[in-house]
Design a protein that fits this description.
Blueprint lengths: L1 H36 L13 H10 L12 H17 L1 H14 L2 H13 L5 H13 L20 H12 L1 H11 L3 H18 L1 H11 L5 E2 L2 E3 L3 E2 H12 L22 H9 L6 H20 L8 H10 L16 E4 L2 E4 H9 L16
Antiparallel strand pairs: 1-2, 2-3, 4-5
Helix pairs in contact: 3-4, 3-5, 3-6, 4-5, 7-9, 8-13, 9-10, 9-13, 9-15, 11-13, 13-14, 14-15
Length: about 375
């Protein structure tokens, strides 16, 4: 009997405890629900003391997704000017930002990265003064009418526009010739330019009646041959050095058969190759072979001119006989008159090569060979 009463008492206490416990839980849940609805528990947080700065940055810049100024030279120059200032103080951060920009190529994002760093440099008067100097340096009205003409005068004439259109038709041929000889296609175009500009201006009637209307290249068929103006004796030497492993000009075994003939009438086949009005491949191939061989001659003699397009073009123009390796080669070659101004073959090739013109079609590949 006593045991039963004790059990009943334990059950009653347990029931009371559970009832109170559930009541408390219900109370807390109800209180939380009401508090949430009434925003009693909302944490307003703290307003960053740089909030005004963040707002200004947001107003100053367009959306990163909609920004279309990735190639804005003005903004890129301004960015690099500020990056250079940052590099004086925190080179590690400058390097990180630069690496990121090279990866994403988004100038709007790059500008914000610089401003994010500047936020932590507010107390550095010296840093901020230098940044302001950058702002002043680039503070001019970029919307005003600007000079749209090219710095290189010969690129502002109709002949240059016609040349570009004509060359674009031969892009695949030039690329193929460059590929088999491991010669930069842009370098081939550099020597092609000099020869064509000379012809455009020396045979005006042909240019006006045929070349310009049809947007084609001029093919030589007399003293020099093809669109790249290769002389017959120069072509013969190019063929010879291609197979002569004892020559300084010898480019290597892998190139020996690039100019092999398929008939016994070599003279006629050579002429037909170069003077082909419909297919200029061999004109470009001979040019590539000559450039490759001359470069090999100088490199083996201890003078690497791989990164001297103006010297390579000069030597291409004057021929093997005048290719004498030395430490101080001169730029020159034939004189080409364009709109009453004289240019040398080598200088014209130099200006084109480094102009950035047609880089989308013939990109820079200085390490190709």
């Amino acid at each position: 009997m006593f045991k039963k009463l004790k059990q009943n008492k334990a059950i009653r206490y347990s029931t009371i405890i559970l009832t109170v416990l559930f009541a408390l839980i219900g109370f807390m849940l109800t209180t939380a629900f009401v508090g949430i609805k009434l925003h009693v528990f909302n944490d307003p947080g703290a307003v960053d003391y740089n909030d005004r700065y963040f707002q200004k940055m947001d107003n100053d810049y367009t959306s990163l997704q909609s920004d279309s100024s990735e190639n804005d030279v003005f903004r890129i120059a301004k960015f690099y000017s500020k990056l250079n200032v940052l590099n004086e103080y925190y080179p590690a951060n400058a390097q990180l930002i630069h690496n990121a920009y090279l990866q994403h190529q988004n100038i709007a994002l790059a500008e914000r990265m610089i401003d994010a760093v500047s936020l932590n440099m507010i107390d550095s008067n010296e840093y901020n003064n230098k940044i302001k100097e950058c702002e002043i340096l680039f503070n001019h009205n970029t919307t005003t009418t600007q000079n749209t003409s090219n710095l290189y005068e010969w690129m502002n004439i109709p002949e240059w526009a016609d040349f570009k259109l004509a060359v674009m038709k031969d892009t695949s041929l030039i690329d193929s010739a460059g590929k088999v000889m491991d010669v930069e296609p842009r370098l081939i175009v550099s020597v092609l330019l000099g020869e064509q500009m000379r012809l455009f201006n020396s045979t005006r009637e042909v240019y006006k009646t045929v070349i310009s209307p049809l947007k084609i290249l001029s093919v030589e068929a007399n003293f020099s041959l093809g669109v790249t103006g290769v002389k017959e004796e120069t072509a013969m030497l190019a063929e010879k050095y291609l197979k002569d492993s004892s020559s300084l000009y010898y480019p290597g075994k892998k190139y020996e058969h690039q100019l092999d003939f398929s008939t016994t009438d070599v003279t006629k086949e050579r002429y037909d190759r170069l003077v082909n009005y419909r297919n200029h491949y061999y004109s470009y191939l001979y040019a590539a072979v000559i450039l490759k061989e001359v470069r090999q001659q100088w490199k083996r003699s201890g003078f690497d001119i791989s990164d001297r397009p103006e010297i390579l073009a000069t030597l291409y123009n004057v021929g093997y006989a005048y290719s004498v390796p030395k430490s101080n080669p001169s730029v020159g070659g034939s004189t080409i008159q364009i709109k009453e101004k004289n240019y040398t073959f080598g200088a014209l090739a130099y200006e084109f090569y480094y102009s950035g013109e047609m880089a989308d079609i013939f990109p820079y590949q200085p390490n190709l060979w």
